[in-house]
Amino acid sequence: MNNSNITINYQIGVPEGTGVDTSDAIKKLNTEIMAGKGPDILLLDNLPVDSYIENEVLADIKDIVTTDKNIFHGLIEAYKKDGSIYQFPLKISLPVIIGNKDLLKEANDLNSLLTVIKEYSSQTDSRIFEYLGSPEEFIYNFYFIFENGWINKNNKINKNNLTNFLEICAEIYKISKEKDDIYKEQMYDDYVNQMKSLGLSENETENGYSEISSDGNRYMNSININGMSYYKNKPLFALDSIDTPYQFEALYNLMLRDSSITYEILKNNEESIFYPKSKIGINNKSKNIKLAKEILSNIINSNVYSGNLTPNKEQITNSLLIDDISNEYEYNSENNHYLKMIQKDIDSDGMLIETPIYWLNENDINDINLRIDKIDTERETNMVLISEVAKQFTEMIEKNLKPKDVTDKIIDNIEIYLSE
Predict the structure, then answer these.
(1) Rounded to two decimals, what is the model's pTM?
(2) Rounded to whole angstroms, how far apart are CA atoms 246 and 181?
(3) How far apart are CA 127 and CA 237, in angstroms?
């Protein structure tokens, strides 16, 4: 929608470097909204949406979302509340697990995952996860996927459920860390040998390795598909999130190269989950609701987020389709795919790897869209709870504490918060 007569005023609630407190900014926004002076369109991430809906702060945008045949049906259903829709994400992220087909069938919950890992680790020194991370990073990932019934209906922590979760996660982490350390030692030895062959000194080698091996914090960050295929010490699983169509392209190319590999969009308590990003709503007290809906509809259907996973099926399809068949891409009749390019990389032995990358075909894209259409549950996150659990889990691993004692400490630390 191009209209030179419309000016959009973009306001940031918590500008960087201003010292503005998030809670104060939310209180100010709430006051403005109730006085009829708030913004027309709201970015709802980390705002009290349930309270807004209960107090009729948000307008119903069902007419925008449900009339668009390109929006995934499961996402529409996820945001319906008493027949209305008050919020909708512009981007989504999908938690996935990648691994051997037979093993993924066996590892369908936390207990069975531990059983598979125990059996696998007794047979090989290969890694368990493509990226393990710190205890804190690990527990965030597992919280998003496997948390089930930590808080009872009376808003009290279920001690048995949380203790069982911590106990299993600790065992999985310790096994995985042992294998990860073996892998890192192998990678370091390989790196040193490569650098020595290039004539580097021991000091130069040490400094170089410390720079390339540093890790940042990752909480369900974008998945590294290449880590499942290029290294000689291949992991059992990759567990992270898919955020872009191009990660699906890498994943389906991995499955073309290795037919034993598959993936699953993860479930929590039998619900297919997703993480919303940039959730949008409209101020019900706005004097410009009709115009705000036009702008919101335009955003949902535009290509502004085409590099991300969006709720728009057509956008995802167009991102993955072969760009121009007239370019005479080479066709592989064995796998029914057109060759896109040859990707070059170096393996852990310093050897050149040339990997064919193919355009996804219609069957691949249909499979992706069918899987996404089955997601139906926004993953809600209690950041106060998981932050405390992550903190105490880290101490539990470092000091080898008992899960029951850790649960008691968590309850002591956030009992007041939960009672509010």
Answers:
(1) 0.82
(2) 31
(3) 8
